[in-house]
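Fig. S4 source data, part A: sequence.
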Amino acid sequence: KTIRIRPGQTVGVYVTVKDAPDLRYRNSSLPEGGIYSTDGVLNVHVGRSWGEYPLRGDGSDVYFAPREYTGAFHYVAQDGACGSAAPSAMPSAASLPGGTESPTGEIRNAYEHTRDDGMCPEEAELISTFNDGTGSHGALFDVAAKTTLTLTGIDLNVDWHSSDVMEVLVYARLGSWFSHQNDADAWPYKLVDTVLRKPDGFRDSSTGALPVSAKLGSARIPRSAFKPLSMKAGETWSIYVCTSVADFRYTLGTSIGKTFASNSELKIMEGAGAADWPPFGGGDASTGGIEYTFYAPRVFNGRLRYDYVDECPSEAPSVPGETSAPTASPRSVTRVSYTFYIEHSPDILAQQIKYDMSFGVRKILEEFVGGKDELLSGYASFHDLEIDSVLANVVLPSQIGYLCIPTPPQLCTPVSIDVTVSHSNTVSVEDVTYSLLRHSTNLPNLIKAEGYTAEYVGERTVETDSRITLSGVPDRLMGESEQEYFAKVAQRFLAQNARDSENDSLTILSVTVNDQEFTNSVQYQIGIRDNAVRGRERRRRLEKATNIDIKVKGKFTPPPQIDFGSIVEDSINRDSRKLQEELKKPSLADRGGTNVLGEASPVGGLGYFEEV
């Protein structure tokens, strides 16, 4: 039975197996309600599992949390293309919602619904939140375009508790806002410069909490007061909203740069709150020389309006089901953790350390994804890799394995930076994990944060080159599919057998075939010398063989250090017969002409590894 989910709507799903406790799920490092999987259209949130059936519903039901559902959802995304009907006539000033234009030229909160640029009369929108919680003079945040679009408007959450009139400025720049919040020259685009009045009949928050419906209409910026901003697919822009009175509302966040709201066209990230007015006045004599204050992480409260349809279609959109809707590319989520011992002065609190470290690491990763690292930038370009969150937590020394002894009077704080990225499933989680961790030991030298001495003590990557010789193979080199199969079997074999007796943290991430060489190997057989003499002799027999050069990548957490090359070599030499049997399985089980990869076997249905 199908259900319809509208944009912004959340639907709860309860899956149960009545006859046996056989439904599988996995533990989660995220809290309940956190997004652990997304394809840009549908978000799947962390939930809980139930230990019994049926549920009593009286609060005594056994549950386990947080847990991640490991199944799949099938859906059809219905495009929002608008029809080709002509725009309606411009409404009169009196009919505009929220008020009229005042005789003084100040713009009341009237929103123009009509279009005069030849585009579709309907706009799309993305709401972050209107749940506020705190606020001040504005907010800075990043927005990322998933498709080419034009930003056409912005609405704000204002509680009007201190004034009935406010000046509003909105700036934009290409790239992140961080480190540019005090630099006016870094914000070349002014999208809004206007004055708003409190809507007629609006009840401010001094008389009690406001419903969200009231907040949605509290401060609408008219189209005529907004300068459209074009954003290309893949670009990240930052927005700086400034209000002359401290009535603008925002919400406490969890991590700067973390995606807070997203749909198929646009993403809004967590940013910072601005505590001062006018903008860009920090340290300036005109503002008394005070340094401006910015609170982070904070979530912008408001709504972004945008167009992403170049022109209205000439025909009405087809009825859902008549044609196949485009299928969103399946996505995967990769998580890694960077762990540090941070030495610092006693006057730096843990909250400040977490903020500085999470932002420092995010800045480095953004530079890597932006082009400074060939692997991560390649995954971003070709596999749609995006940084979802960078969140710092103070951990226990026992989770690291040894104590940090600081130089008095310094303190030492263990911190874990948990990073979540999403990407197309055309690249494996193991490959992305390797790309994120391979610079981990150098992060202390790259983080730009004063007042700290950082020692990296977390997971790191290892790699080694090795050669495996296979005898008894056909008179040719392996084909592409056979190389792929060999690498998969070798990775599975090493994952089960490559162990260090003093460090059990080793994980094999990947095995790749670098090169192969066809050769002969010498095999010795014991045979009878002749019928008269009952002695035995060793006979040499040449067999076809392939030398396969492989690269093995893994990760581990010290202490102690490990000799990865020796571990790989020893496991292959120690259990070579087991590796042979693993390689033979597809051909022995499939003499009908295809292997386990579903590909035709090249020699009459007998696999390459049949006689290895």
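Fig. S4 source data, part B ends here. Confidence is low (pLDDT under 50) at residues 80-121, 310-326, 524-536, 587-606.
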